Amino acid sequence: MVIEKSINRQKFLAEKFRTFYVSKFKKECNLSDIEYREFGFFYWEPSKFVRHLRFINIENLAKHIISKVPKHIYSSAARYEVPNAPNMKLKSLIDCELIFDLDVDHIPTPCKKDHDKWVCKQCGTTGTGMAPKTCPAKKCESHSFEEMSWECEKCMEIAKSEIFSIIEEFLSNDFGLNPKTDLFIVFSGRRGYHIHIENEIYRKLDSNARREIVDYIMGKGLVPSYHGFSLKSGNKPNKFETGWRGRMTRFVIKFLKESSPNELLKILTRRVNIINVKKDLVAQLNSRNPSWSYPNIGEQTWVNLINAAIEKYGAKVDQPVTIDLHRLIRLPGSLHGKTGFLVKKMSYNELEKFDPFSHAQVFEGSIRIHVHTAPQFRIGNENFGPFKDQKIELPMSAAIYLLCKGVANLL
Ligand SMILES: [Zn+2]
Ligand SMILES: [Zn+2]
Description:
The chain is α+β, with helices and mostly antiparallel strands. The protein folds into 4 domains: 2-104 and 154-209 and 319-362, DNA primase, PRIM domain (Alpha-Beta Complex), CATH 3.90.920; 115-151; 224-313, no CATH class; 364-411, Ribosomal Protein L9, domain 1. Helix content is 39%, strand content 20%. The chain is built from 15 helices and 18 strands. The chain has a 4-stranded antiparallel β-sheet, with no helix packed on it. Strands 6-11-10-13 form a 4-stranded antiparallel β-sheet. Strands 8-7-9 form a 3-stranded antiparallel β-sheet. Helix 1 packs antiparallel against helix 2 (58-68), helix 8 packs antiparallel against helix 10 (274-285) and helix 8 crosses helix 11. The two termini are 12 Å apart. The relative contact order is 0.13. The chain binds zinc ion (2 copies).
């Protein structure tokens, strides 16, 4: 009975996805150089992943998608001479878009404890929020968890502001890219965004160069003294400067303002009065010429403070996506099989107003379904739920979302 229900659900979703692909795929896809890209598909039934496929144009690609209706669709950021060759060497790389992948899955947002859950696959221990690295149960030590996450408005806002900060702080200010002409953004269809840089110079970069760039924007391995920070220096960083000198000063100010006394005590020790130090240092670092000097705070403590601030506020991108030239990434114009949301390509100008709960919704009509459990969520201008074991008529996009998430069944 359970299996039958799940097959019915899959068939229904595939049929709805097909209707979308027939009418809107070609308009939404907008992928350049199709004939030079590798494609990969995750099919519903039988459930399997197939890659190393090539299509000569959008018509052929659309035809395949409409006939097979995959659950997830990916294409390469790279362009190859022979995209369908079975291994990377034979594919013969031409070049590759530079990509930054930012996903809420990797950001410890405060609301996750309200909407995300995890279960240890080994011992069954459960918890809320992000899964720990190691299971906290005695003698378990498992690193493998089943995670149940939810697309939440606050999380999506945090993801968007992170994307803005990467584009404005780093790509525009530090690298001199023009956000309006050198890049575009793709909503991943779930909890993240990708930034694609198509600019010719960046496409030619090898993996090592990409690692340098991603380390730079994350502040990974940053040594403050290489940026002129030392207590003896006559030219100490101030917050008005460009690059990491100004940024590390601003991060420290933010860290002092936003951290709890306990967090600060871990770095500043008990020799200073945390409340006073917070106020005094923020005032000092806000000035044009801060001395970076304070009783009982030595150079190493400053370095620890800078590092903690970078750890907290540095960009939280998924590094391997940027570094790996052969990575497949979600195809714009496809639907995400775990939400039914559109993987939506947009320009920098469109990002500000983009609302995934409205602009990535593609289904029309309504249907009555059985919802097992769901927290409150919004689709378009309407709020739904929370639901607990309930039969209810919902707009099609809301119903498909719950069916894709596996928390509802057809009647
Ligand atoms: Zn465990
Ligand atoms: Zn959230």
